[in-house]
Amino acid sequence: MLETALAKIRIVLVEPAGPLNVGSVARVMKNMGLHQLILVNPQCDYLGEEARLMAVRAADILETAKVVDSLPAALVGCVRAIATTGDDSRSLPTQLEQPADALPWLLEAPSALIFGREDCGLTNAELNRAQRLIRIPSSDAYTSLNLAQAVAICCYELYGEEGRGKEEGRRKREEGRGKEEEDASFPGSAWERISRGSASSIPDATDNLSTCYPEQLATSQTENPSPPLTSAPLENLEGYYQQLETLLLKIGYLQRHTAASRMEKFRRLYNRAYPTVDEVAMLRGVLRQTEWAIKTYRRETVSDTLDGALPENLTDS
Q1: What span, in angstroms and rounded, lies between the C-alpha atoms of 77 and 67?
Q2: Mean pLDDT, range 91-96, rounded to an integer
Q3: DSSP letter at 44?
Q4: What pLDDT is stored for residue 271 in this prediction?
Q5: How far is CA 176 from CA 32, 171, 172, 188, in A?
Q6: Is the torsion defined by CA of 63, 127, 246, 293 positive or negative?
């Protein structure tokens, strides 16, 4: 089987409670060409008769599903993650997007699409594990979608987007072959072809622009450039967050009762930045050096004057 962009995407279900839902998810995944199913602490028998009944000929998806005990474990190896939510009433600092706008982003790298519990969805802490959030638009009369239905809509969007990408690639290859044939029929430089009367062979000004001013051209082509494909895996970032929280607690910047909310803000900051592996390593190096300095250097004796905040002789300042 040829490797496809869809093969790099895993569907993550957090604590699913209904075996019928899990079986239905397996079936629609196979319908749409997805094969990686990750179950976080499942609350049902995902290999039982009910799940298999709904999976029909997708029982292999259930049998190869990976079971983990936490969401971070489900994201190991992923570079990108999108979480779904049906609740737009609670305060979420990350903008909610529509599936068609956000999901194509997952096709470019090893990624995860995260779905929450049938009754209460994902917690804010779990939503913060993802870089982007989506909400499927629905009628105000009944906004909550069934888990399997939500997965089906998202898988359909991914399948359709990959198909459009393949068609675009085929069209570009055909255009490239056509240009090669045209160039072969008119040997010589572009300016020689112009002199022979081939108006269509006038070089595009953007050819030189992209060479001389690649950064400016890239900026003009898109206001929101896609994050680099070299972004650090999510488990690398998770290790950094744990190290950062430990240090900030130690120096008193964080307090135990407010640490979780403060760390959510750090997560959102880095989720927007998409740091690379080398950049995360650099950040962790800073933390390690800070830890070493705290242990190594004795704190200097401070003056009794204003607890040492100001020099004893103000004229020296």
Answers
A1: 15
A2: 76
A3: S
A4: 84
A5: 30, 9, 6, 18
A6: positive
Residue 208: in which H helix or E strand, if any? helix 205-212
Distance between CA atoms of residues 83 and 74, nearest Å: 13
Question: Which two structure tokens, joined as six digits, stand for 316?
Answer: 């020296």
Q: How confident is the model at residue 191 (pLDDT cuts 50, 70, 90)?
A: very low
Tell me the β-bridge partners of 11: 37, 113
Q: Residue 75: exposed, middle, or buried by beta-carbon count in 10 A (0-12, 13-18, 19+)?
A: buried
Euclidean distance between CA atoms 78 and 268, whole angstroms: 17
Answer whether 10's CB lies under 8 Å from 67's CB: no
Read off the tokens for 269: 């900051």
* Tally of helices (H runs) and strands (E runs) in the chain: 13, 7
32-65 pLDDT, tens digit per residue, is 999 999 999 999 999 999 999 999 999 999 999 9
- Predicted confidence at residue 218, as pLDDT, reads 41
Instruction: Answer yes or no: are the C-beta atoms of 105 and 132 closer than 8 Å.
Output: yes
Q: Which amino acid is at 102?
A: A
Task: Kindly report the average pLDDT of the chain as a whole number.
Answer: 81
Asked if the model's pLDDT at residue 281 lies above 60, the reply is: yes
Structure tokens at 52: 């298999």
Which of the four pLDDT bands, split at 50, 70 and 90, describes residue 268?
confident
CA–CA dist 119, 251 (Å, integer): 40
Confidence of residue 290 (pLDDT cuts 50, 70, 90): very high
- As a whole number of angstroms, the distance between CA 153 and CA 132 comes to 17
Phi and psi at 84, nearest 5°, equal -105, 145
